[in-house]
Automatic annotation (TrEMBL):
Organism (species): Candidatus Rhodobacter oscarellae
Chief subcellular location: membrane
Protein name according to UniProt: Signal peptidase I
Membrane-crossing segments per the record: 18-38
GO-annotated biological processes: signal peptide processing
Length: 266
């Protein structure tokens, strides 16, 4: 009888340990660092399909959007009407945010702050009339192959190369006015290479992908299936470092992990 009681107590202790561990992990994910796996190529070559990173939720404080309960649409902070412990993002930050309409998570680079005037001219970014200078930086190459769980094929500047061929994109280093420099890619002429002046409203931000001709971002309005201006309360956190990266269909396929991307700074 005593043995059965001890066995039941042991099972109950195991169940409690698992529950406590899940609760702690849920709180950690809700308030501090959220895992994020890169699903598309819009941020190449800064971020590759299959990069796994943790999003720093403390960077910009908390909103009802940023502290949602894991795997639900419910907020753990419904009492927050604006942001709590908020701090302003900086130009050049790589940010995860929730699309204001579609309610799905995006990751892009912040290029426009509230009040900024943003314009594209022949594929070159201008911020408040100042050119974000682009310096040629060679060619970015990758295999033309099915990538990630969505099995996407990359777009290439050197035409249709066929499966197994070498896909090329022109690479540049862009210097953001009043911000850092970073890598961008160019595939060719695109409809988003030229635009009218976008004036960023108060409390909103303007985002672009580093893979400029293969990114759905703020250059296109929400009404036209773009991202448009993103409100401050939609920001989830800042991406600072890639933890590891998988070139295969799943991050669990450890034999496809990219050895040069462990703990890579973004």
């Amino acid at each position: 009888m005593a043995a059965k009681t001890e066995k039941k107590d042991g099972i109950w202790e195991t169940v409690k340990t698992v529950v406590y561990a899940l609760l702690i992990a849920g709180v950690f994910r809700t308030l501090f660092f959220q895992p994020f796996w890169i699903p598309s190529g819009s941020m190449k070559d800064t971020l590759l399909i299959g990069d796994f990173l943790f999003v720093n939720k403390m960077a910009y404080g908390y909103s009802a959007t940023s502290c949602k309960i894991p795997f639900t649409t419910l907020s753990a902070c419904p009492f927050i009407s604006d942001r709590w412990l908020g701090s302003e993002p900086q130009r050049g930050d790589v940010v995860v945010f929730e699309h204001p309409v579609a309610k799905v998570e995006f990751i892009k680079r912040l290029v426009g702050l509230p009040g900024d005037k943003i314009q594209m001219k022949n594929g070159v970014l201008f911020v408040n009339g100042q050119e974000a200078a682009q310096t040629p930086d060679g060619v970015f190459t990758e295999d033309y192959a099915l990538q990630g769980p969505m099995r996407q094929t990359p777009r290439c500047s050197n035409g249709a190369v066929g499966l197994g061929g070498v896909c090329e994109k022109q690479k540049f280093v862009e210097q953001l006015p009043g911000g850092p420099s970073h890598s961008i890619l160019n595939i060719g002429n695109a409809s988003t290479d030229n635009s009218l002046v976008h004036t960023v409203p108060d409390g909103h931000y303007f985002f672009m992908g580093d893979n400029r001709d293969n990114s759905t971002d703020s250059r296109v309005s929400q009404n036209a299936n773009g991202v448009g201006y993103v409100p401050f309360d939609a920001l989830i956190g800042r991406a600072d470092r890639v933890m590891f990266s998988s070139a295969g269909r799943s991050m669990l396929f450890f034999w496809t992990w990219r050895g040069d991307r462990f703990f890579k700074k973004i």
